[in-house]
Amino acid sequence: MADAPDDRDGDGIRQKLVATKEKWARERRLITGAPDEAHANRLPPGQQEVTNWPVLDLGIHPDVRAEDWKLTVDGLVANPVTLDHAQFMALPQSDSVSDIHCVTRWSRYDNHWQGVASRELIALVRPKDEARHVIFHAHDGYTTNVSIEVFADPDVMLAHAWEGSPLTRNHGGPVRVVIPRFYFWKSAKWVRRIEFSRDDKPGFWEVRGYHNVGDPWKEERYD
Ligand SMILES: Nc1nc2c(c(=O)[nH]1)N[C@H]1C(S)=C(S)[C@@H](COP(=O)(O)O)O[C@H]1N2
Ligand SMILES: [Mo]
User: Fold this and answer.
1) pLDDT of residue 67
2) Which pLDDT tens digit goes with each residue over 40-49?
3) How far apart are CA 69 and CA 32, in angstroms?
4) Residue 185 Cβ < 6 Å to ligand 1
5) Quick one: residue 166, left, alpha or beta (phi over 0 = left, psi -120 to 50 = alpha)?
6) How many Å apart are CA 157 and CA 11, to the nearest integer?
7) Which atom of ligand 1 is the closest one to the Cα of 103?
8) Any ligand 1 atom below 6 A from CB of 148
9) How far is the CA of 172 from the centre of ligand 1 (A)?
10) Mean of the per-residue pLDDT values of the chain
11) Percent of the chain at pLDDT above 90?
12) Can you say how many angstroms the Cα of residue 140 is from the centroid of all Cα atoms in its chain?
């Protein structure tokens, strides 16, 4: 993991933040009790639209330069790879526009992403039949998990640019995951490894009371 210069006094603050979010999970805070499974509304239940882009994480912003960044895709795949930034940028590139929905209640519409679609990575590594889950590992120690079907959604990508500019460090640059149809905690910033697994491995928030799937229209905030 890279050093964390932002992290002076960070431990206490971070423990407090984690404790607060764990408490919300126990109390099932922010649940409105009105799922919208048909996606009748663009805004999922209990969410509010914002026009800024809040920064949310554990308070560690790893300083990973593009020239040092590498992505390993491994586990139950026929062709495990480790790509450097140039090799990653040489993969077929996509543009996508999607909404962000954070479990802390804010949603941000029409984010323009550029990057590599998950489908390109899947085609490259060829997951084995036994692979059922995908685990993301990030440079700050964060992990999160989705099913292989969710990872294969056409709008899932590894993004290196947002609104036409390189993704900034505080939002997970040089490369982050974007999984638009689920709460944003599933979208790992500073991603370094994508692991295909037979067994599920609940990640940082999933073991702290957050829902294992995290569908905003079903308000799957908590376990
Ligand atoms: N590596 C890493 N990725 C992470 C997190 C984190 O702490 N570390 N936090 C998650 C959470 S809870 C949210 S809401 C989004 C926030 O992304 P943003 O700061 O770009 O808005 O990142 C997600 N991905
Ligand atoms: Mo979050």
Assistant:
1) 98
2) 999 999 999 9
3) 41
4) yes
5) beta
6) 31
7) 14
8) no
9) 8
10) 94
11) 87
12) 13
Q: How far is the CA of 187 from the centre of ligand 1 (A)?
A: 7
Q: Is 142 in the pocket of ligand 1 (CB under 6 A)?
A: yes
Beta bridge partners of 72: 82, 193
Cα–ligand 2 centroid distance for 55 (angstroms): 9
CB of 183 within 6 A of ligand 1: the answer is no
Q: What CA–CA distance (Å, rounded) separates 94 from 109?
A: 19
H helices present in 58-135, as ranges: 85-89, 118-125
CA atoms within 13 A on the CB side of 53: 14
Q: Which residues make Cβ contacts (< 8 Å) with residue 35, sequence separation at least 6? A: 45, 217, 218, 219
Find out whether the beta carbon of 206 lies less than 6 Å from any atom of ligand 1.
no
- The protein residues having their C-beta less than 5 angstroms from ligand 2 (an ion) are 56, 102, 185
| Chain segment 171-204, per-residue pLDDT in tens | 999 999 999 999 999 999 999 999 999 999 999 9
* Residue 127, both tokens: 């997951």
CA of 128 to the centre of ligand 2 (A): 31
% the chain with pLDDT above 70: 96
CA angle 197, 90, 144 (to 5 degrees): 30
pLDDT digits (tens, 9 = 90+) for 93-118: 999 999 999 999 999 999 999 999 99
Calculate how far, in angstroms, residue 87's C-alpha sits from the geometric centre of ligand 2.
30
